[in-house]
Each structure stands twice: as structure tokens, then as C-alpha cells.
Input
Amino acid sequence: MYDSKSKFSIFVGLEWANIKHDVCVQIGDSDKRSFKVISHTPESIDTWLNELHKTAKGNIAVAVELTKGPTVYALQKYKYKINLTYALGQLKDNVT
Output
């Protein structure tokens, strides 16, 4: 379901870790959220994002606490699909 009022059809919060990532997904303007754990491998991230993109039928917004590293680089590969938003505290630390 794509909400025409928003440029994103899916919103994702990604909690990074060395072994696995916890993700929270909210579709469009729904107030329902789903939760999933994905392993910290390029293949797992690729499979998960491709499945998510099939559901999205539009742009995906991903909020992640990192500004660099393997997870961010893996997500940037999908720039045509997703828009990365970084945690404000992390951005502040990088700027100051």
C-alpha cells in the first residue's frame, strides 16, 4: 500500500549488531509494525531487501544508527530503492 501523501511506502528501523540485525517494518500509513531478525551477511540483507521491495511497490525509508560500515554500505547498494536516515545523535557526533 503506497500512501500518495508520503514519498515512502515502507518505513524501517534497523538496529545494527555484529551477528544479527533487528528490524522493525511499518507499511505506509498503517499503525501496525512487524519485527524480524536478519543475520549479518550480505546475502541475508540482499534477500530481505528484495522481499521487502516486492511488498513496497515504492520507496523504502531506512533509519539506522550508523553512518558507515559494512551494513550501511550494503544498504547503499540499493540507493534506487531506499533512503537512509541516520540517527540524529550519531550525525551530531560526526559533525562536531
